[in-house]
Structures are given as C-alpha cells and as structure tokens.
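Put briefly, the fold is written as integer tokens. The lines below illustrate.
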Amino acid sequence: MRKLEKKYANELVVVGVHSAKFPNEKDSGNLHNAVRRYQLEHPVINDSKFQVWQQYSCRAWPTLMFIDPQGNVIGKHEGEMSFDQFDDLISQMVAEFEKDGTLNRKNPFSPYFSKTRKHSTELSRQSVI
C-alpha cells in the first residue's frame, strides 16, 4: 500500500478501517501503537463495533472499497491483491476520472468536505459493483 500511496500521492486517498479480529485489537491504544509501529501515513479508523464492516457488507480481511471522486462506492475487493493488480486498477481509475473531469489533484478530499453533504464524513452508497 505504501508504494501505491507514494506513486499516486495526488490521486489516491487511503483511509484504513480497522475491524478487530481479536478482543485486544478493539482497544484504540493498541491500534494507535500498531499504526505507529508500522509507520502508516494514512488515517486509520477503529471500527471496534463493526459498524463500517456491516454497512459495507464486509466478509473478509482485508476488504478494499473503491470510492470515486464524488464519494460513490464503485467497487469492492475481498482478500489480498498483488501490487501489480492494484497498480493496474488504480491506473485505470485515474485515467477514467481524469477523462471525465472528476479527478481533483489539488484537493482530493474536496467531495468529503462539501457543504451539500449532511456530515463531513458521509460517503454516498449510490452505486455498488
């Protein structure tokens, strides 16, 4: 993930959602320590009550959700994905969003802070693949 975050620094926004497999992993302090230990640079949310897990109908670790620049879910992948597969997929998405004019390299977070959304963290679930 780190290589992709660097390669697509102006196109890719990564948000980790930690849904614990074991009871001790639900503790935010333990999660914070793990994020620091692995030197993660993207934000990680503690989904200790599995609310996000359930909302997006996750069934496996990891589950990758793909969200377009408008905040719509456009895809989902359960399980591991090789760097090359992930890189190809991100490259295709970047080309598509660039072509349709929705890619904002200056402020990739802009749809998430839109005044038209009810909550600044709300993501649309209009289209699911």
In short: The CA atoms of residues 14 and 42 lie 6 Å apart. The radius of gyration is 15 Å. The helical segments are 2-7, 28-37, 51-55, 83-99.
